[in-house]
Amino acid sequence: EDFDNRVVDYFVQEFERRHKKDIRDNPRAVRRLRTACERAKRNLSFMLQTTIGMDCLYEGIDFEYRLTREKFEELNMDLFERCIGHVNKCLKDAKMDKKSIHDVVLVGGSTRIPRVQQLLQDYFNGKQLCKSIHPDEAVACGAAAQAAILTGKDNHEIRDLTWWDVTPLSLGVCVNEDEMSVVVPKNTTIPAKKEKEFMTRRDDQTSIRFALYEGERPRASDNIELAEFVLSDIPPARRGVHKFDVCFEIDANGILTVSAKDKTSGKMNSITISNVRGMLAGKDEIERMLEEAERFELEDEEHKKKFKARKLLVDYVYDTRDEMAKELALKLPTTMAKKLEDEIKHAIEWLEEHQVGTLDVFENKRKELTSIWDPIMTNL
Coiled coil located at which positions (predicted)? Predict the structure, then answer.
């Protein structure tokens, strides 16, 4: 359809150039033009040129144009190259190289386009493409085989098939004020079951909110929120005492169930989300998100560094507090112990006030604290 749109747009502009009239306000004329462009596209798969001719296309004006394969390829070259980009990304995601590919099977009507075939053959270093399968029927055959597998039909023709469906985007949980913690990575085979451990982030925390996201960006707010649920009535305790097993389970029908269980108290809650196979983001949304992940890769690396710097700072402050509670208070002079306790208290208050900040802010704060606290701990 994208190829057709390029040709339609070109002819709309050509008609306007010739006759100073814009046919876009006439849906019937545009529909006739699109049908003619689709036919021309198919013809150019086995012809070097074809003629588009329509009587009374718009306001009684006839339209005729001789479209060459060369012009068609010029109009769509960036789309052709994008197709090859998807092939390259597919191999990269599968951690495979070109040499490990046995056959390149053409699927879908657009693979008949000679330029697409040539780009594919060049990409695979001159490898002959497999054209023995009808490109339109291949899609229907694949859907039928998948349906037979899902319904459990025992057919000898599909019994030995290995058939995998995968998640097109990563699934995870929002932690630490907008950080996306991935539980199910992109391209995980379905059905799947993945678990990850989380913990309370504050003292005396009696509930924890699990916001579920899909996407490839390190910031949760840049991804798509699927749902959320709360695990409540957690007995008050110090930070990190309560740990939670968060489980993402996707069945063969694409139903996602997410559960969270407090390992200490045994309290549990869960939520179920339908249609994870197609994902809640549509095809266009998935394409957009993957493109954004590539476009903002450098920016996202900075966010990852910032999240890591804050985690190191938080862990340092609370680890020092725990050490203080266990041993340091007994080994330090009273005045020094009281001073260190006050500094830890102020550091925790600072963390609460600075949930969001820059990389430099978190790194400088950690340097400041380590310069004061490390000498004390080293001497002990």
Answer: 279-306
The pTM score is 0.67
> So what's the pLDDT on residue 277?
46
Residue 109 and residue 135: Cα distance in Å, rounded? 6
- 67 and 82 share a domain? no
Amino acid at 172: G
Give the tokens for residue 114. Answer: 């000679």
Counts for the chain of helices (H) and strands (E), in that order: 10, 12
Query: Structure tokens of 251?
Result: 């069945």
Cα gap 174→354, rounded to integer Å: 17
CATH number at residue 206: 2.60.34.10
Burial of 224 (0-12, 13-18, 19+ CB in 10 A): middle
Residue 26 lies in a domain: yes
Q: In what order do the strands lie in the sheet with 224-231?
A: 179-184, 171-175, 208-214, 224-231
Cα distance between residue 275 and residue 284, in whole Å:
16
Q: Is 246 within 8 Å of 258 (Cβ atoms)?
A: yes
DSSP reduced 3-state for 139: helix
Q: Which residue has the tokens 């389970």?
A: 249
Measured distance CA(332)–CA(377) in Å, rounded: 10
Domain closes at, from 73, 104, 124: 73
**H or E segment to which residue 255 belongs:** none
Q: Using one digit for the tens of pLDDT, what is the confidence trace for 293-345?
A: 888 889 999 999 999 999 899 888 888 888 877 766 667 777 777 888 888 88
Task: Take residue 361 and report the two structure tokens written for it.
Answer: 């802010």
Look at residue 162 and tell me if it is in a domain.
Answer: no
Name the phi and psi angles at 274, rounded to 5: -85, 160
CA end-to-end span of the chain: 72
Asked if residues 144 and 121 have their Cβ atoms less than 8 Å apart, the reply is: no
